[in-house]
Design a protein that fits this description.
Elements lengths: L13 H6 L4 E6 L1 H6 L1 H14 L1 E6 L11 H12 L6 H19 L3 H28 L4 H25 L4 E4 L17 H16 L5 E5 L9 H4 L4 H13 L3 E6 L20 E2 L1 H9 L7 H9 L4 E5 L8 E3 L39 E15 L5 H14 L4 E6 L3 E7 L5 E4 L2 E5 L2 H10 L3 E15 L9 H11 L4 E6 L5 E7 L3 H12 L5
Parallel strand pairs: 1-2, 1-5, 2-4, 3-4, 5-7, 6-8
Antiparallel strand pairs: 7-8, 9-11, 9-14, 10-11, 12-13, 14-16, 15-16
Helix pairs in contact: 4-5, 4-7, 5-6, 6-7, 8-10, 10-12, 11-12, 15-16
The structure holds adenosine-5'-diphosphate and aspartyl phosphate.
Amino acid sequence: MVDTYANGAVRIAHTEEKELPGGWVVLKFGGTSVGKFAEGIVEVVGAGTKVGRTAVVCSARSNSTKLEGTTNRLLRAARAAEKPGRHYDEIVEAIRADHVQAAKETIKSPEILLAFTEDVGEECENLSKLLESAQVMEEVTTRAEDMIVSKGEKLSCRYMAALLEDRSVPAQFVDLSSIVKTHKINGQVLNEQFYADLSAALAEEVYACGNKVPVITGYFGAIPGGLLNLIGRGYTDLCAALVAVGLRARELQVWKEVDGIFTADPRKVPTARLLPSVTPAEAAELTFYGSEVIHPATMKQVIRARIPIRIKNVMNPRGPGTIIFPDAIENINPRAPLHDARLFRTRSVSDATSQVAGPKRPTAVTIKHKIMVLNVHSNERTRSEGFLMNIFRLLLKWHLSVDLIASSEVHVSMALHSESAMISGGGDDEYKIDNEDLRGAVADLSEYGVVDLVPDMAIVSLVGRQLKNMVGIAGKFFSVLGDNNINIEMISQGASEINISCVIEEREADRALNVLHTNLFTFLE
Ligand SMILES: Nc1ncnc2c1ncn2[C@@H]1O[C@H](COP(=O)(O)OP(=O)(O)O)[C@@H](O)[C@H]1O
Ligand SMILES: N[C@@H](CC(=O)OP(=O)(O)O)C(=O)O
């Protein structure tokens, strides 16, 4: 007799699952991929099921750009619920219509289409109720906001599961919106035990799908403090990573609309080349300094579990992509898996560990936009140790985090990044500070020295595991910028042995990227 779950899925013994050829591969698809290439996703998943066990994790749908996507619409609905009137109704209706329309265009089976349309209706009705009650309470709490946002992934995954079924790939929608049992985590949120427990719980959800492909909501659970608050946008990457860890997957595949990681942003540098592989530390550095290919928390989890991450393109599934391959186990620092575990290093070129075969070259060049430099020149009364301590204390107080720092005994320059504008004006208008935290920080910092702000800047970074062995590379980096009349506001080199960064004017950013790529990458051919 066939052993089945309550939902009808065939139960496969866990031991048997592990014996299946190839093991588990976890596939993560972002919102724009679901929005624009849903049928391409079906093909990728269908092909995956032929060679091993496949689990799918999806973000909320975006028809064109993330800005106009479901998550942003849901957040706008939450803001509308904070004001009087039912202005959120039209947003809910737009979300509903959008999903139904997508299904009508792609799902052929009338039964599957009908069932999906009814599910969408129910989810949207429930969403309206959530918004209504938030309005009555005159507050959208973090918890309510998370519940509102979770609808995006639910709708998206219901759609992908329906489409897979329609194309004869047996699939099962998996809702993780209440996977986190708050009483179990004992107030300790996002520590390693929490992630370990969660990974195990996610694997159980997958096993419960039996022989069907699980289509898992990237939104996972009622984390105290809020998923959006604590993890931020891009939480689906982390969810996929935890599923991969729980399943001890053979590989985590992150499907995007770009062939993989390039030597520079291919949309800005036409001669950029696809990199077959990068190290976890390089990928982390690139993500932090503007080439956001993968959420940083994601990498930490999978690399610690020694699972390779492959970046692939939904528009070109046959392409090899880029693989982020975990380091050898002895080099993984369990507390900080993206960093070298050795305490003592040598930067000497004769160091045995630095004898890399083949030509030495930087891995990639990247730009981080929306940077502002904050300079503090100490007044003479303060001693240097106390000076730096006070500055960092005030940055903490005002929730400002520093991307890059250069300091002398009595002067400190810090590059700050913010997605939202902290300053307005410029051109013929006076600059003014729009952000409360920045205003508070400037007022407090002024007690310790003279403060000035330099807006409209960008960080340009050269990243590569071989940089530390490339004698003269820093000189070349700065002279290429100088030869092209690109003024450097601030330099930081040495803190990371795989990164050389400096701050330049935003208006020069794309030109800098191109001249650096031309001069530091192509001459090495
Ligand atoms: N070095 C790089 N390699 C690949 N993509 C890069 C790089 N630097 C920046 N990017 C940009 O990162 C984006 C990632 O791909 P995409 O799938 O479009 O993003 P998202 O997942 O945010 O929708 C692309 O828009 C690409 O232009
Ligand atoms: N839907 C969420 C979470 C997410 O991870 O999105 P994406 O995978 O498309 O970056 C967002 O837009 O932030």
